[in-house]
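Lay summary. Proteins are chains of building blocks that fold into shapes, and those shapes determine what they do. In this project we predict the shape from the chain. Here is one chain we studied, written as its sequence of building blocks.
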Amino acid sequence: MAEVRKVIPIQPAVGDDEDGGLFSLYQAHRKIYPRAVTGLFARLRWAAVLFTQIIFYGLPWLTWNDRQAVLFDLGARKFYLFGVVLWPQDFVYLAGLLVVAALSLFFFTAVAGRLWCGYACPQTVYTELFMWIERRVEGDRTARMKLDASPMSFAKLRTKATKHALWLALALVTGFTFIGYFAPIRELGTQVLAFSLGPWQWFWMLFYSFATWGNAGFMREQVCKYMCPYARFQGAMFDKDTMIVTYDAERGEPRGSRSKKVDPKAAGLGSCVDCTLCVQVCPTGIDIRNGLQYECIGCAACVDVCDSVMDKMGYPRGLVRYATENAMTGHLGRSSMLRNVLRPRVLVYATLLGVLVVALFGSLALRNPLRVDVIRDRNALARIVDAGAVENTYRLHFMNASEAPHRLRVTVEGLDGIRLASPQEYDVEPASNRAVPVNVQVPPGVGAPGSNQIRFVVEAIDDPSLARSEKAAFMVPR
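And here is the predicted shape, written in a compact code that computers can read:
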């Protein structure tokens, strides 16, 4: 008899969500409509937006010595930073700059949480700009929700088209400016108007424009919540003395709506009136009253709106505020909290950051703009020339990282009677390099057979402070 197996259907798990529906491993995206907010931190946020964007959009248009002040010329492999010209050999300065940026991130995060995310991150900055355009075109939160819920009409289509046209204009200007850091922006503007950009220039300008339009216009908080790694490891950088946006549950609970005339103590209520405005202004849609969450970018919009509600109710401010965990549990005052913020960890970060900044910019200021590389001719190690003299051939690479032309004098030393059997003086244009072949000779009988150490000395005739000394090997036949 064949074995009969009983098939038990798998029942989906029932979740405990408010709708009593089925539990899903994937959360459907819910569009967030942040409400406009005013206050101290909103003004600081807009000040950061204006500061960063004035720098970003304005820097490529500055000139320095009849050239673009800041230009990363990848084709010529030269980076111009005002009066400094950097070459690929100066990669150490880029590494130092990245270390300074990382330590700065650690320092500010240890002091006050995600300040970078809330005030200066490009995703935050462009989201603020795009939402400002959106509010001007479609209205504030309630108007936008009604517009999206309404059926399609000519008025709705016109409003949406206007918004996206302004978004695309800002995105294209942003993409154009981004490319302007890698190609002379004035020439780039002429090429854009004439539609004569190269394929890679078109690609990167449109790609960056599309990324700005998509990230700031549509993805917004999803970039912070799902794509940015900083949101995931921020918890490892916080401690109990890190200032974060915090809800004072001891003061606010139990929450509940009430009239302004009601005494909250007599009614058995806390200071929170459960208006949910802190949720409505949050750009990532979280409820700060549920405690610290990785989605919080520290923008403090909830602090501004809660303070305004407290003012209307006649309650003290600070129900939602910047505070530390130790300050909340220990009921510390502001001065005591700030003293604890300056803890050894923060002081170590500050010291390392200060030393690195001084070392980096000090090295840049004191660096010698003249570089010399010596390469032997490997096709002929040595040869005998007139009167039995021994001759070696080298190739000298001069690199002038200054913005002034220089005339260089080359001499050689290290063996008796050694001399340069080539011109001794060479002109090198500003911010350029030049390679020249040179022949070096020694009299017969000078030097041991095999390799002998010599030295090339290169100095600028018009500026004796620019000098380089490079070792080389002189081969004498056995």
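What the prediction tells us: The longest strand covers residues 390-400.
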